Structures are given as structure tokens and as C-alpha cells.
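#struct-help
A.M.: can someone run this one for me? Single chain, 262 residues.
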Amino acid sequence: MEIHKIKQIVEAALVCAEGPLTLDAIAAVFRPEDFTDEEADRKLIREAIKALQADCENRGVELKQVASGYRYQVKQELSPWIGRLWEEKPPRYSRALLETLSLVAYKQPVTRGDIESVRGVSVSTNIMRTLIERDWVKVVGHREVPGRPAMYGTTRGFLDYFNLRSLDELPPLAEIKSLTEPLIEIPEEEQEMAEEQLQLEEQERRDALDADAPVEGFEDQSLAEVVKLTAAPLETEEPNSETVSVDPEQNAKDFSEVSDEH
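D.P.: on it. C-alpha cells below:
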């Protein structure tokens, strides 16, 4: 079969496929009699793929190899225009979610405890659920320690979404900051205000945690007893050297005389 015909078949298969196609999946499209032997089959298919990739240099799409195989996709620089075809805005993820995803990607396999020890705060259940529902993270095993916590790792879906063929193509950690920053530039004053607000919320959260934390040594006491035992003593002024004694009977007598006058 001529290379031109192979290119057409491969291109049509990639366009019609619901997702990326591996070399084996592309080869399965052809009949055995289309090639003289299996080695020539794979060689001609690879040549056709390279030719199709070269044809995309001056087009709006590109033939990209990701972890799950080959696929056609819109070039990244055209996304601001192509994105207008969809009314729904792309999902925006919190910094906490992106930090969690980065730790899983670079330190996998990791447990939630590992992530919390690095970030210094607890990992929300909603964050892990979102990552799993997006097919970016999955449970890859359990650590053999008391409680057998789940260990998390990335998926092929994660690699496909970020146009990666393997974890070796992950950018250096120094570049992660630029990946997590928003594309729209925010004025410096607004950034400072946002940082101050975040610091205030973090301090309020810590204060709440401190207030709810059990007092050491009083775990078995009732709430009233803990409050009573932990309350700071009231500061009182030193009594004067001259003290005045009050006679209860005399005080009652004076009060009775005042009442009679009225």
C-alpha cells in the first residue's frame, strides 16, 4: 500500500476516534494483506504519522503524542479564540487543589498525611474527590502502617490532559509556580489586598482550631470544668492598708431607719 493511502487512513482513524490511539490501535485498522509483514506495517505507519505531524506545522491543529497514544488537538496558542465556541467557562481550580496535585505528581505514591505534612494544613476531602473524578489521581495501593492509609498516584488521564507522554516530561519544580498562576495579570495593589485577606482568613482559621483544641490534661473533664480550670484569674488591686469592717446587724438597722423616714 502506498504511503499516501496509509496517511489518509491514519488521519481518518485519528479524527474519528473518541480518544488517543496507540500504534497498536492504528495498526488494527489495516488488514493483514495491506502489508507484506508486521515490521513493515509498523514502519510505514510511523512514517505516515511523522508526515501528518509535518503537515500540521502551518495548520491550526497538531498531531500530538500523549501517554494514551496519538491524537489531533487544537494548538495551544489558538485557545483564546477557539474557547469562545463553548458558553461554559473552563473550570477554575483553587491553589490548594493545584498544590495537592503537584505533590501527588512529583512525590507519588503519597498519602494524605504526606501531603498535609508538606503543605502544613489538612487536605480537604472535596479536593481528593475532585482529583479522582477528573481522572487525574487514583489510589495505587495502601501503606503498610497502622490504618493502612491509601496511597495516591497520577493517571494516564492526567498525562493526556497536560500533553505529557510520561512523568519524565514534567517541568522542573521551579516552573510550577508559573503554571499555577492565573493567565490574567492582576494589579499589584489587588494582589497585596488578596494576600492580606488570605493571611487574615488563615489566622482566623488557626484561632478557631486553637479554640476548639482540647486542653492538655483535661480530656476527661466536662466543658464547664475545663473552662473553670483554664480560665485566667482576675487581677485585683492590692487592698488598702486601712480596712473597713461592716456589721451586718448595724447595716440592717440603718436600712430600717432610712425606710421609716420615707
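A.M.: thanks! Residues 184-214 form one domain.
D.P.: also worth noting: The radius of gyration is 35 Å.
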